[in-house]
Amino acid sequence: MSFCISLPNSRITPPTSPIPPKSSAGASNMAANSLRVAAAQMTSIIDLAANFATCSRLVKEAAASGAKLICFPESFSFIGAKDGDSLKIAEPLEGPVMQQYCSLARESGIWLSLGGFQEKGSDDEHLFNTHVVVDDGGNIRITYRKIHLFDVDTPGGRSYKESIITEAGKNVVAVDSPVGRLGLTVCYDLRFPEIYQLLRFQHEAQILLVPSAFTKVTGQAHWEILLRARAIETQCYVIAAAQAGKHNDKRESHGETLIIDPWGTVVGRLPDTLSTGITIADIDFSLIDSVRAKMPIAKHRKPVEFWKSASL
């Protein structure tokens, strides 16, 4: 079941189900085995207060729809106009910006996936790109520091060197939540399937979170196909909250927030890939179990030792 809400003029499309129920009893059983999630799309700017106001509106929309979790894109709280802006506003997780979002979660009674946040690094010259999961009591449940940093020359576009001010994380993390076991990543991690394999097969993730700010060029070419591939090869739901549109004169994001099921079907998508709003879908645990039982890749996959010794 999925539908979409867009701001400022909220719009809800009729709920649809990726697998039509065979009977009223079947529909009731699906409802009992599913929980609602939301994925946000927004255009963050240099104004912390304006970004928080946008997030607050989207949280209220998600909570009103019955969602237990809302996922925000990378750099949800701030996108600078020039190099170095993010470093200037970076702060510890105990600082006022993150604590404001913790209060929002507590007041709204909903879990928040916030990634990535500009967390103060080990010195004044660095920060961490940190994915933070906050529970409905306003408590930080877990954090993930982005491992793969975006040092890339985009085709026909600008060059990025995230590693100049960003320290890479070292740990793969997952956490239990009311909507299932969440595997945390951030944006450029999407191009490295190993982390998603670890989240599924070692950390037992059911839902993979991919908060992102994909560039317009790379997003048009690869965004949806990579997300669907990660869902298919891990048999997990994928929730990919995206930055969208022009943030300033130098930076533009692809948009296209998506929720994808374990079969690789898109079950949540905003009708306008650049609008501010949320898309909503139900996490169907029976679908996860069915896909994994009928195609048991967890049993069929080879251990690392096999590939070390195999003749390729």
Concise synopsis of the structure shown:
The protein is α/β, with parallel strands linked by helices and 312 residues long. 30% of the residues lie in helices and 29% in strands.
Note down, in words, how this protein is organized.
By secondary structure, the protein is α/β, with parallel strands linked by helices. The strands form three sheets. Strands 1, 2, 3, 4, 5, 6, 9, 14, 15 and 18 form a ten-stranded mixed sheet that branches. A six-stranded mixed sheet has the order 10-11-12-13-16-17, covered by helices on one side. Helix 6 links the parallel strand 12 (207-209) and strand 13. The chain starts with a strand and ends with a helix. It is built from nine helices and 18 strands. The model is unreliable at 7-31 (pLDDT under 50). Helix content is 30%, strand content 29%.
Which terms summarize this structure?
10-stranded mixed β-sheet, 6-stranded mixed β-sheet, alpha/beta, 312 residues, 18 strands
Shape: globular
Helical segment count: 9
In whole angstroms, the N-to-C terminal distance is: 44 Å
Mean pLDDT: 90
The total count of strands amounts to: 18
Estimated radius of gyration: 19 Å
SSE order, as H and E? EHEHEHHEEEEEEEEHEHEEEEEEHHH
Low-confidence stretches: 7-31
Structural class by sheet pairing and helices:
alpha/beta
Percent helix among the residues? 25-40%
